[in-house]
Design brief:
Elements (H helix, E strand, L loop, with lengths): L1 H7 L1 H11 L1 H12 L3 H29 L1 H20 L4 H29 L5 H30 L10 H7 L2 H10 L7 H6 L3 H12 L1 H9 L11 H8 L5 H16 L2 H6 L1 H7 L4 H25 L5 H24 L2 E2 L3 H5 L4 H7 L10 H11 L2 H15 E2 L2 H17 L1 H11 L3 H32 L2 H22 L11 H5 L4
Antiparallel strand pairs: 1-2
Helix pairs in contact: 1-7, 2-6, 2-7, 3-8, 4-5, 4-6, 4-25, 5-6, 5-8, 5-9, 6-7, 6-24, 6-25, 7-8, 7-17, 7-24, 11-12, 13-25, 14-24, 14-25, 14-26, 16-17, 17-23, 18-23, 18-24, 18-26, 21-22, 23-24
Length: 508
Amino acid sequence: MLRIAFIVALGGFLMGFDASVISGVLGPVGDRFELTEFEQGWLVACLALTSSFAMLGAGVFSDAFGRRRTLQLAAALYLVSALASALAPGYSALVLARMLGGLGVGAALIVAPLYIAELAPAKDRGRLVSINQLNIVIGISAAFFSNYVIAQVFADLSEAPLFPAWRWMLGIEALPALAYLLGLGAVPESPRWLKLRGEGEKAFAILAATAGETEARAALERIAPSEPAAGALQGMLRRLLDPALRPILAVALGVAVLQQITGINAVFFYAPMIFEKAGAGVNSALLQAVLIGVVNLLFTLVALRTIDRLGRRPLLLLGLGGITLAMALLSFAFDQAFYSLSTAALATLDDASLRASLAGLGEQRFADEAVFRGALAQALAPEVLAQSESALLSLAIQIDAVTVLAAIMLFVASFALSLGPVMWVLFSELFPLPVRALAAATAGLVNSLVSFLVQLLFPWALAALGPSQTFGLFGAFALLGLLWVGRAVPETRGRPLEAMEGTLTRSP
């Protein structure tokens, strides 16, 4: 079962890689295609937009054609997207290639956890389903690491090679995508889906091999082939909107919103930008992003070891407490920061005309980023400002960089211990089988739409609100989520999937 779970969860690896690799590409692509802040946000967020709608389609498709075939289609989309991104001749083509990858992301994110939950023994289900989140984390870490390595390799090459570093960063994903497509040929179909299709003997043989004959027989006896999941979409929609399911649907949707509105993808996908705003150079920012990936991986492993021992609710409460504290620290650090171009800092600039234009700002102290940006706009011509603003912000900021790094590490560790793995486990456990795929897809759609908005608006929020207020807002959402989880989220640890329907739903 462990081997099957890791193969199926490779879709999570590709999702993490695909989403995070853009963090190292934004700078050179932004310079190459002269992108605005909104265009940068759109390049990052477009993947989440198409994945949102792919989730709904994947739920319906997997009910009609099977979990495995849906995952194979996702793997093929990942492969084509990676190659198309690497070869994109312009900004629009790159956006379209990433949107194609988003279709694979949406399908894999929903169907992989469902597949694993439908195959796993109840006592190990949380740990095995969380392997998908582990692979997402490994994919994120791999993207940060490969970006850093490729940047180092290309540091000594021509400034404009025929196939520049950012194309390699995007294209290397084709290798794991091909491995995923081939690996899925060695896994069986979901036994619970097979039973709904009337293939009871085949379903029993597969489930008995992973969960044992007793559990397999008990589980499959509760599933009738004539249930709505094997029939029309209209029947599934009626069942999903049944008043008896409203409490658990509300829980799933609440957790889906909470996972993204606390800012996780803003931190992951814009990590180098955040570190550059805290004064780090480009290579240092990429290296610190690698460190964040390592922290994410380590605490996801902790979650895998504890999710079936401590339960889902305790991890959520612990993690949200840590996220609230981390965002408060991050907001405080940026609130205390100021901007000053000292004589020594100006001397590090190679461009003599730029130094001369900024001489009037020497030794002045600016209370926040917006005021400093205004001073730069008065001192520099628009085209010069566009080329040098990011570097000047990093050069001028005076901030406690250690607190910034520690706060982001605490945030990532807390998320990896809680909202990261627990959300997908809950999606696979809360709903009865006839509507499980559609319900999980609906919650996933909401999650992905919130992610899209956060990714799209984050560069604008940093510029318009400033880092302190932006991170403070994320912290406020985390605090509200902590209070809500304590009141609304049920515990599902160790309970058979089929046995939860009666206890988690209520009569209308």
